[in-house]
Amino acid sequence: MPLLGEQEQQIVKERLGNLTRDVEMVLFTDSSTVIAPGKEPCIYCKETEQLLREIEPLSDKVHLVVYDLATEEGKQKAEEMKVEAAPTIILREKGSDAVNIRYRGIPAGYEFASLLEDIEMIGRDGHGLPDEVVKELNELPQDVILQVFVTPTCPYCPQAVRTSHRFAYASPKVMGEMIEAQEFPALADKYHIHGVPDTVINHGAQRILGAQPVSAFLDAIKKAVSTTA
Question: How far apart are CA 151 and CA 196, in angstroms?
Answer without folding.
Answer: 7
